[in-house]
Amino acid sequence: MKEITGQTRVLGIIGYPLTYTLSPNMHNAALKDVALDYRYLPFVVPPERLANAIAGIRALGIAGVNVTMPHKETVSEFLDEISPEARMIGAVNTVHNVDGHLKGYNTDGTGFIKSLREELVDPEGRHAIIFGAGGAAKAVAVSLLNEGAASISLVGRSAEKVAALKAHLLGNFGVFPIKALSFDDDLADIFEVGDLVVNATPIGMKDGADLLPVPLEHIDSKHFIYDLIYTPSETALIKAAKDKGAKAVNGLGMLLYQAAMAFEIWTGTPAPIAIMRDALLIGLEGGDRSKYAQKKDQRFSG
Ligand code: NAP
Predict the structure, then answer these.
(1) Residue 91 is assigned to a structural domain of this protein
(2) Could you list the active site residues?
C-alpha cells in the first residue's frame, strides 16, 4: 500500500457501536490493489454526534463514508442531495463528498440485485416472497420492483409494519401486486406462485442458528432462497432448503456488491471484485488465511 502522504484521501464508515464491520477489510484491500492513494477507516459515531460528524466530513474533506446502524435513516437530513433509489428506500448507506457537496446513495438494494444476477437469477418477472419488514426488506423490495419483479409478498410478525411497507411500495410504484401477510397466515398460495424467497429477518443468526424464518413445508426445488444473513454462512434455512432440492445462498454476495458499488461511486474506478471477495472471506475468518483457504469455495453458498 502507498505511504500516507499529504495527498492521501480518507474514506470510512460511520456507525454505532460499530463493533463488527468487514468494510475496512474490503475497501483497503481494493484501494491497495488499484493503487489509489486513499485509506478507509472506522469512525464510531453515537447518534448525538451525527450532525457534527457530517460537518466534520465537509470540514476535513473526507472523500466519502459508508453509513451503518443506527444512522442509515437519519443521516439524509444532513446531506445536500439524495439519490432517487436512496430516497425510495428511505435510507442512505453511502455518502460521497464532491467539493463539500454531500450526496447520499443506497447500494444495499443494487448490491442484492448484482449478487442475484451473479447467481444467474434474473429479477425481472420474479414472484418474490420477502420475510421481514425492516430496512433490508425495504431495500430488497424496492430494488426488485425497480428491476421488473412481477409480484412481491411481504411476510412479517408485525401487521402494522408489513402494511406500512406495502403502502410505501405502492406509493412509489403505483398499482402493483403486493401482498402483506403475517407469519401465522396460510402461505401455501404465495409459495405456489413464488420463485424467489428472501429472508430479511435476523432469524438464523448466531444466537438462534437453529431457528427457521420460513415454513419449510412449502419449499421445493423451484424456489431460489436468498438468506441475507452471512454469519453463519450456512443458516438452518439454507441447509434445510438445500436438503429439499432448492438452490440457496447467503448474504455475502450482497455485502460484497454493496461495497463494490460504494467504491465505484467514491473513486470512479471499477472495483476489483475478486480482491474484495477474498478480503471479505479472510476477514470473516478473523484474518486467518489458512482457515480461509479451506472454506473459500463454500462460503457464498453456505
Ligand atoms: P431491521 O431493520 O431491524 O429489520 C428486521 C426485521 O426482521 C423486522 O421486520 C423485524 O420485525 C423482523 N424480525 C426480527 N426478529 C424477528 C423474529 N424473532 N421473528 C420475526 N421477525 C423478526 O434489520 P435489517 O437491517 O432489515 O436486517 C435484517 C437482516 O438482514 C439482518 O440479519 C441483517 O444482518 C441482514 N442484512 C444483510 C445485509 C447483507 O449485505 N447481506 C444487509 C443488510 C441487512 P419487526 O418489523 O416486527 O420489528
Answers:
(1) yes
(2) 72
